[in-house]
Amino acid sequence: MNKVVLMGRLTRDPEVRYTQTNNTLVASFSLAVNRRFAKQGEERQADFVNIVAWSKTGEFCSKYFKKGQQVGVIGRLQTRNWEDEKGQKHYITEVVAEEAYFADSKRDGEASGSSFENTFGSAVSENSEFSVSSDDELPF
User: Measured between alpha carbons, how far is 81 from 38 in angstroms, rounded to an integer?
Assistant: First the structure.
């Protein structure tokens, strides 16, 4: 199973580009994800994770996500490599976003103290229509 669940802050606004072959939207951004524990006397460290979001999820991210905002991403880990024009090999590991969520408090944009499950209020995924939903619309 290949499943990644992350919550962190955007280090920059999503960057949008389109594929050359079929003009599919691709949004790229990076999340600063705090590590769970910090060594005594040291600041908490963060990992910077590259995220790629395609199609509707990418459109959602590019439209609503901004630098500094706390978001949640569910997706899969992917590695790829390529050779540049100088013949040098490059390797990258990134998360392909399948779902993207707002994780800031709706009231003031600050991170809420609620649990992970309660934090994600609005979202879009590859399997949903491009829309932002609220808890009021749920049938249960």
Answer: 33
Q: Tell me, what's the pLDDT at 124?
A: 55
Q: How far is CA 112 from the centre of its chain?
A: 18
In 46-131, DSSP assigns E strands to 46-54, 70-83, 89-102, 123-125
Domains in the chain: boundaries: 4-35+44-134
Mean of the per-residue pLDDT values for the chain? 83
Give me the residues paired with residue 17 across strands.
Answer: 26
Among the ranges given (18-27, 31-40, 64-73, 94-103), the one the predictor scored with the smallest mean pLDDT: 31-40
The letter for the amino acid at 71 is V
CATH class of 4-35+44-134: mainly beta
What are the φ and ψ backbone dihedral angles of 105, each rounded to 5 degrees? -65, 135
CA 95 to the chain's CA centroid: 8
Q: Span 105-126, mean pLDDT?
A: 50
Residue with tokens 């100088």: 86
Q: Take residue 70 and report the two structure tokens written for it.
A: 């706390």
For residues 91 and 81, is the Cβ–Cβ distance under 8 A? yes
